[in-house]
Amino acid sequence: MGAHYWRTAFFLSFFIGVFLVFPLFPLARKLAIVRPELLCLLLIFWVLNRPQQMGVTFAFGLGLFQDVIHGNVWGSHALALTVLAYICLLSWQRIRSYSVWQQAMWVFVLVGTHQVVVSWVQGFAGYPSPTKLIVFPALVSALLWPFFSWVMLQLQWRLRLGT
To answer: Fewer beta carbons under 10 A from the terminal one: N or C of the chain?
Structure first.
């Protein structure tokens, strides 16, 4: 059951994450400024907790899927999530040794980097994005990190024990 529990948690978390990212309502687009980057948080969490199983290839595929869902320029989220996964893979041991609030500061930097890369690629394609769409989602994601990581660790723990 060892390898099975994390795969179940992994696929369940990304299924829920993709469902929550999908812009179902017009209100979701208006609240985009305060909506956390859930797929970034999921990718950061799984790379930090399963660096041997997660990689830049998965991040690239997830980013392309997110581009399709959002209707963005193809490759913007793919490149950004690939960069994010690469940075996490380089420094996962260091980040995991920090307290949850220090990790939240890393999450702010990582999600901010993601937002800058997405904005940069979309800017090259002629789609401007306001600065507030870069800073606020990164800040909200960082503030959500302690609760988010606790919930994900609880999910992982419960699936490991089979309860």
So the answer is: C
Return the structure tokens found at 72: 């963005």
pLDDT greater at residue 26 or residue 123: 123
N-terminal to C-terminal alpha carbon distance within the chain: 13
Top-confidence residue, 45 or 4? 45
SS3 of 22, please?
Answer: coil
13: which residues sit within 8 A by CB, 6+ positions away? 42, 45, 46, 152, 155
Report the C-alpha gap between 132 and 154 in whole angstroms: 33
Element (H, E) at 63: helix 56-70
Position 70 scores a pLDDT of 79
